[in-house]
Design brief:
Length: about 140
């Protein structure tokens, strides 16, 4: 079956043309969108005071013993960073970044302590919450 992709303007035109009605209700307020687009920055540094991003740690991540780095964190780290001091679940850790700069390695013990990897080697997906606060990367696995 053929699939046709259309943009929002064309979709609305087709709905009007075919007399298909719908209700529009925005999900975000203007203030919410402004906050997402331009988070509060530390004076003169361009670094967010606190940036929060959520990411699911998948069973494949756990199996591979990696912690995938969200894009906003990669941007913060810069291209020349190879080892990072982070606070994960309240504990200071030094983690290495792989050559492709996609993930942190050396997280097996972190996964065990947070319940992502059980004693029976069962993989349990969990939510990771990432912050940049006071120039530190803080990760909570919940």
């Amino acid at each position: 079956m053929p699939v046709i992709t259309i943009d929002g303007e064309r979709l609305i035109s087709l709905c009007v043309e075919k007399e298909i009605g719908f209700n529009y209700k925005p999900v975000f307020s203007k203030n919410d969108i402004s906050n997402l687009i331009s988070p509060t920055k530390e004076q003169g540094t361009g670094i967010p005071k606190e940036y929060l991003v959520d990411r699911i740690i998948t069973q494949n991540d756990i199996r591979a013993r990696i912690l995938v780095i969200p894009q906003v964190i990669k941007d913060y780290l810069g291209a020349d960073c190879h080892m990072v001091e982070i606070v994960i679940n309240g504990k200071d850790k030094n983690l290495t970044i792989d050559k492709s700069r996609r993930y942190f390695g050396g997280v097996t013990e972190i996964y065990r302590q947070s319940g992502c990897l059980t004693e029976d080697n069962i993989y349990v997906s969990k939510l990771s919450r990432w912050k940049i606060k006071d120039r530190k990367i803080i990760i909570d696995i919940v």
